[in-house]
Design a protein that fits this description.
Layout (H helix, E strand, L loop, with lengths): L1 E8 L3 H10 L5 E4 L12 E2 L3 H7 L3 H6 L3 E3 L1 E5 L6 E4 L8 E3 L2 H14 L3 E3 L2 E9 L2 E8 L2 E12 L6 H5 L3 E4 L3 E9 L8 E7 L2 E8 L3 E9 L5 H5 L1 H10 L3 H7 L3 E10 L3 E4 L2 E2 L2 E3 L5 E2 L7 H20 L5 H25 L8 H7 L5 E3 L2
Parallel strand pairs: 1-2, 1-11, 2-8, 5-14, 11-20
Antiparallel strand pairs: 3-7, 4-7, 5-6, 9-10, 10-11, 12-18, 12-22, 13-16, 13-17, 14-15, 15-16, 18-21, 19-20
Helix pairs in contact: 1-4, 1-9, 9-10
Bound molecules: flavin-adenine dinucleotide.
């Protein structure tokens, strides 16, 4: 059995960020179930990410990747008249519409170049806490790899499979789901704006992507009749065409839908505790955001970096490192919940619609641990 300092489960944005910051300091292995990043929704990266890339010594490399700039947002939210907010007054400048697959691959490569090892495709089949650390069995192709690690980072996304296996509980705040599809966008860069439109049953989102493509997504609650729209590609297209401004925006962009579409949960969730003796959760595993916030990737980068720093301090014997990390995540969670209530509170046009009523009332959280 080989000994390492840190095992990271999940090689997405949070796991790769934790690994690239720990790699120069300690032996670290990432276990990732997919051989390489696959296309997935979530391409808007806020401008504040610039500061994190600078702190991690990655800003020049990130800019050289040439992701499309995002200059602001146009929305119909709380008012039938469209509002535009641009990046001119943002001290960090513009954000980005990412080529998400390439972004994730780039982060993984940064982790490897800084000394992290990655096993992919691979999954943890057994994990047990013993006196000398975690004993872990990993299925990697036809092999079983056995490792002993002092610390485990769960960066496996919303499911937080490792932390939950160790007894942590997920608090789910709502039942938001998202149906999405991609298409061609003939208007170069779509003026670099993200577009959001509220409707009685939920809200729409569309954004231009690199290579003349565009994402179109609809959000509602899983138990509402409109969930049928989110699950059905053709229904998505019909309803998008009838939304107040969205339909004409798609027309003017020359939007032609591709065959690929998808459906995913998009609820807000938090893990309790998000760090304990010998384990720590980062990214969506620790706190998952409503896509309305566009905060998920930023949070994955931020908590990936914070989890790496907390892990290094903890392994040096700093007993306050994990409580400090829990406090950091608690502050992020409180601020996020306040902002989310504020954003949804701004839309009061359908006071009797269940989707909006739920968001104007105090959420009834559900705690889950299988
Ligand atoms: C509909 C929707 C739209 C979104 N849009 C945006 C957006 O525009 N901007 C934004 O910033 N955020 C957005 N997000 C959120 C963003 O995608 C996430 O916050 C971000 O992906 C979190 O990164 P992560 O590394 O924590 O988790 P993930 O990206 O989920 O990565 C987890 C990794 O772990 C791997 N994994 C999972 N289970 C295991 C296992 N058992 N063993 C090994 N590996 C495992 C997965 O393959 C994956 O590579 C959106 C989310 C949704 C649902």
């Amino acid at each position: 059995m080989r000994s390492i300092d840190v095992l990271i489960v999940g090689g997405g944005p949070a796991g790769a960020t934790a690994a690239l910051n720990l790699g120069p300091l300690r032996p670290v292995v990432i276990v990732e179930r997919n051989a390489s990043p696959s296309p997935r929704i979530g391409e808007s990266l806020p401008a504040a990410a610039r500061r994190l890339f600078r702190d991690m010594g990655l800003l020049e490399q990130f800019l050289a990747e040439g992701h499309a700039p995002c200059y602001g947002q146009r929305s119909i939210w709380g008012d039938p008249q469209p509002q535009e907010r641009d990046a001119v007054r943002d001290p960090d400048g513009h954000g980005w519409h990412l080529d998400r697959t390439r972004f994730e691959q780039w982060l993984r490569e940064a982790a490897i170049s800084r000394g992290a090892e990655i096993l992919a495709p691979a999954t943890v089949t057994h994990i047990e806490r013993k006196l000398d650390g975690w004993h872990i069995a990993i299925a990697h192709g036809s092999e079983v790899v056995e490792l002993r690690a002092a610390m485990v980072i769960d960066a496996a996304g919303r499911g937080a499979p490792i932390a939950r296996r160790l007894g942590a509980q997920t608090r789910i705040d709502d039942r938001l789901i998202c149906g999405w599809l991609y298409g061609r966008d003939e208007q170069t860069g779509g003026r670099g704006l993200t577009y959001v439109e509220a409707t009685e049953e939920g809200w729409w989102y569309t954004a231009p992507m690199p290579h003349h493509r565009r994402v179109l997504a609809f959000h509602t609650d899983a138990d509402l009749p409109a969930a049928r729209i989110a699950r059905d590609r053709d229904a998505l297209l019909v309803h998008a065409a009838s939304a107040r401004e969205l339909g004409s925006l798609l027309d003017s962009a020359g939007f032609v839908a591709e065959a690929e579409s998808g459906f995913t949960s998009a609820h807000s969730a938090t893990l309790d505790p998000c760090a304990g003796d010998g384990f720590i959760a980062a990214g969506d595993a620790a706190i998952a955001f409503d896509p309305l916030s566009s905060q998920g990737l930023l949070n994955a980068l931020y908590t990936g970096l914070a989890a790496a720093e907390a892990t290094d301090s903890y392994l040096r014997g700093d007993s306050d490192a994990l409580p400090r990390y829990r406090e950091t995540v608690a502050v992020i969670t409180d601020t996020y919940r306040q902002h989310l209530a504020l954003w949804y509170g701004m839309e009061q046009r359908w006071p009797d619609a269940t989707f909006w009523k739920r968001r104007h009332e105090k959420p009834a959280a559900v705690t889950e641990n299988p």
